Amino acid sequence: MGLRELNVDLTDEHIALRDGAREFLGEVWRPASIVLDKLSDPQEVIAQNSVLWDVFRRTQKLGYHKMVFSRSVGGLELDILSLCLISEEMGWAAPDLAVSLAVSITPFAYAQLSPDPAVRDLTRKFCEDTNAGMIGCWAITEPDHGSDWILLD
User: Fold this and answer.
1) What is the pLDDT of residues 83-108, one digit of tens each?
2) In 13, 38, 62, 143, which residue has its Cα 20 to 30 A from 86's Cα atom?
3) Measured distance CA(110)–CA(77) in Å, rounded
4) Which of these CATH numbers, 3.30.450.40, 1.10.540.10, 3.20.20.10, 3.30.1330.60, describes 10-148?
C-alpha cells in the first residue's frame, strides 16, 4: 500500500481524542518524565512520594489504561486508529512513561485469555481501577523470576 491509499481523514471523535491526549500528556506526562529522568537512583523513581505514582493515578483516572480492552471487561475498546493516535502522543510526550503504561497493561491483557475465571476477572478489576492500585509489571530483572529465553542454552 502506498501513501496515496493511506486514509488520513480523521473523524471529529478522532481529533478530539488526539487533542485531549496531547493536552493531558503534554501537561502531565512530559514534565513528570523530565523530573524522573533526572533521578539517578531507581529507588527514588519508585519512592512513595515520587511523581510516578501521581502520573499513574491521573492516567488511570482518565481511562488510558483500559483503552485496549473490550467493553465486556470494562475497557474502552478503542478502534485501531484511535489507539495509534493516542500512542503517538504518548511517545511524543514521554516514551519512558508510554513503555511503563504498556508494561502495566500487559499482565492484564494475558489474564483475560486465561481459562480460569478468577484470573480473567483481574482484567475487569484492572479496568475499574481509577486510583492506580493495580499496576502490572514485567519482572525480568528479578532474581529467580522464572523461565526466560535468555536463560536457555
Assistant:
1) 999 999 999 999 999 999 999 999 99
2) 38
3) 16
4) 1.10.540.10
